[in-house]
């Protein structure tokens, strides 16, 4: 991977801005504030946002190895340990799933990974066939079951991952658009369409394809991933391929998550050079990632990225949220991932 490529330079600039503005060191530990100094609520500590901070730092370390980043990763790990009193968990299963993915990205053999995957697997409600959003919740949604399926697919609980992925497809896939709806609560489907739910559905299909026991199973998972990439492409077509924005707060991360798993799809399907459909899907996923990375970069102002790729960044409101800047950085690292693929 070319360390001097424009995509690498952009991702490095995003990383530098996030670390400078939001990450604070306290001796041997570090964690990120929710906003820059002086903004109300700036010192709030978000478990879910830290899962994505750890994940994207690991992406950056793979793309641009640097011992200083390795030390920062270790300091943030210590910070999460301190802030969670060593448990690395919350009552929200979606948050636990995302943190599990971050830890798997960092070290698949970390003993905390086994503890968290066991927590996810044991929390599946056998009467529903899915994970609730949180302890005691009646909401069963894609934000919990999508990342849990990916995490479990990389563990010894692959059968649970297959079941969760199938539950999402059967329960939440929208027959009109092919996109994944948000969740179901008390038997009623919540029809909201969010970018990150499409991302994790693509991610779980690819994770299951990677470890498929035979060619038929692999092709079935690949077919689901292809269908989802095409659905996202249609969804974004009227807006030049730009992802729908979701504002600040947790929504600031949504598009970055979709970009991450589209980049995985672009890489996966680029491998099969003899398959025309796979090459076309790879190109479609690549183009979606690159268009959104370009729009975010072009709208950058004073080191800040916009919560909406359709407008320039502003030094106020949603654009000051750590989540928004992390989401942009994730998208730019995804662009690094696809930048070496041939079209």
Radius of gyration: 19 Å
Coarse shape? globular
- Poorly predicted runs are none
**CATH topology label:** Glycosyltransferase
Descriptive account of the structure:
One of its GO terms (biological process) is carbohydrate metabolic process. Pfam families: Glyco_hydro_76. This protein is mostly helical. It is 59% helix and 6% strand. The protein has 12 helices and 5 strands. A hairpin with a 2-residue loop joins strand 4 and strand 5 (188-193). The chain is globular. The mean pLDDT is 95.
Question: Can you lay out the helices and strands and say which pair or pack?
Answer:
Layout: H1 6-22, E1 23-26, E2 29-32, H2 47-63, H3 67-83, H4 93-106, H5 111-122, E3 139-141, H6 142-153, H7 158-172, E4 181-185, E5 188-193, H8 195-210, H9 215-237, H10 254-270, H11 276-298, H12 322-339
